[in-house]
Predict the structure.
Amino acid sequence: QGKFTLLRDTRTDGSFLVHHFLSFYLRAGCKVCFVALLQSFSHYNIVAQKLGVSLTAAKERGQLVFLEGLKSCLDLLFGEEEEQSGQPSPLQFISESASDLKALFNFVRTSLTPAGNDSWKGPVLLVDDLSVLLSLGATPVAVLDFIHYCRVAVCSQLKGNIVVLVHSNEDSEDEENELVVNSLCHHSDLILWVEGLVTGFCKDVHGQIKIIRRLSLELMAEQDRVQIYQYKIQDKNVTFFARGLSAAVL
Amino acid sequence: LVFTEEDKYGLYSSLLFKYFLAEGVVCGHDLFVASAKEHPDNILKELPARLLDDTCKNELGEEAIAVKSEDFQDSMKIAWRYQNLPKMEASPTTSTKFGHYYDVSKTMSPELFQSIKWHSFYLPEELSLQTKLKICNMNSAYARLLQSIQRIIYQEGFDGSDPQKKQKNILRIGIQSLGSMLWGDDICSSDTPEDIHSLTKFLYVLRGLLRKSLSACIITVPAHLIQNKAIMERVTNLSDMVVGLESFIGSERETNPLYKDYHGLVHVHQIPRLNSLICDVSDTKDLAFRLKRKLFTIERLHLPPDLSDTVSRASKQDLAESAKLLSSGCGAMAIGKKHLDF
């Protein structure tokens, strides 16, 4: 409860973790607000069906609030004038020069605040992925503020969890992105860091995942626990195994 | 969304661009061509003609037969471990035909254009039409292009908005040399551009339009001119497929014996991972292209055997350097750190 998990990928695609968390929380009966900025709804739906969860059904019964970034951006830019008289679009910051993500935060807060007859377990905010906000014109400070407000609202007040995906690269030239990622790393309870193998491309082992559990935020307390596994992605599943023990080798 | 990084002189990327459009014509798809430097009519006039199946099959068939008869009976003595590996094929076999082949030396006949609908966007013409307009603080050229694409998609019903339309068709969008100075964007000319986010915003909205409709898009960008590498990283993130073309013209690699058969390298930086957890990665990462008289082919890069009598240090080091560069992977599958070379 009240945990902030950071999904971080370096030179590979960590979105399989997003799919996992999505189906995991939906199956657990939590109310999920999914801010999907990079892919369309049908993409997540198809993968989720392979993992055994139906997103359309979840949306219909109110368990899933899905913000499809691509679609609402189009509605914002090309939509008719009458539609905009209602609630402001969550992605308003794209068209306005004021680059704060307040509208997005309000959207998240209203969707996760429990209504009267909700019977879901803890709320969950899922973001895929945060680096896109920087591409769309938000300043790093605005992004960090947004995450901070979300933490206060979701983790502390509503006792829910947040899972956020970011891309990073050690020798990246994108300083704004690195700034956001480093800052988030310091504030996370759990970091799942997905990267490529040190030895290069391999058909049977797609990469390695580093699990960093933050035990205490005090100085001089115990060190974070770090575990490293390797993984292989299949069509409906991801298999994890200890380093060097891939099925292809044994 | 296929994103192509142009080679230095733009020769080969425009060829790839024309192939995409030509395939559209042959398959009966609608076309939308946008360019700031060349009028789309001219681009369309230069599309390569379709290669008749017979000649192509013969060419490839001959090569395959020649290879087979040579080393059919040889069993390997030293490298016997490799005996059981399938014979490496440099070019795609005729059995797996996907798409059509094109003859670069001829241009497509105008009759073929009669059957399809094509739309064009030529920036100098468009700019002279209307007054400036700004959508979401974006470069006005990009904004206008987006509006034009959106209008075509909506009017022609590619987004399913018109249920009356029985026949569904695909719109192939080709945008040439995006991000260059001709589009009014200064990311190619200065290190600290005025509006870093124009290109990325444009790509995001374009991605939304593509996802919403039955269309595919290829964009070529003079990536070598973009000073700010952060933009390239963001752009890679926003595209489905990223391919870079590196031609050997004018570079030291032109005389490198490694590359004597080829005209350039193809770097696949990212492949699409849509609707599934995994993506389809091919076995090889090292691809090179060459422009023969009639065909533009992309093949696996294989090193020629090292048969030099003289063991000169300089050339060996060169080969090692180039070989190191070959082992870089692509972004959808993980790449390792650079300091280890195998």
